[in-house]
């Protein structure tokens, strides 16, 4: 699949089943995704993978974070066979500002989602207050300087026979401007240069 097709056909997949990427394939895809723009090549992120019965423990912590029922949160963690928690782990000693390190992490996630899609897998990015709540931080051993950003659910999309429609690129005309430097030069100086 070429890059343009991947961009125009990728969708957040709400129904995901086995198979999910193997550890070997996910590692390969993450190596490629980590080539996303990253000032200083800091790789200011880390992933925490949850699958199988461990999804129940994750659901229990989600329930503790948001006050919803354990069973409803466990059901959510079973929407995909593999969940990957993304933790922003900025380098506080770096001269690269934290916002730019966050941008590197989000660029890497976008690349990973496109790579998964190109391989026939589906994914959906899920966030919420519980992602970085205190019980979740303890559960995932998130350090004080880190932030848990959200969860990438991965698996094989359930197809109902319909073909995924290509996204139609939107008109960005109102969001694109050609910059022209202001003309602050005095008229007499302009004429003197002629």
Automatic annotation (TrEMBL):
A Pfam family matched in the record: Nitroreductase
Cofactor: FMN
UniProt keyword NAD present: yes
Record-linked Gene3D superfamilies: NADH Oxidase
Top-level class of the enzyme under EC nomenclature: oxidoreductase
Domain called Nitroreductase: residue spans: 9-155
Protein keywords: Flavoprotein, FMN, NAD, NADP, Oxidoreductase
Coiled-coil portions: none
Domain of life: Bacteria
InterPro entries reported for this sequence: NAD(P)H_nitroreductase, Nitroreductase, Nitroreductase-like, YdjA-like
EC number(s) from the headed UniProt entry: 1.-.-.-
Annotated family: Belongs to the nitroreductase family.
Protein name: Putative NAD(P)H nitroreductase
Originating species: Streptomyces olindensis
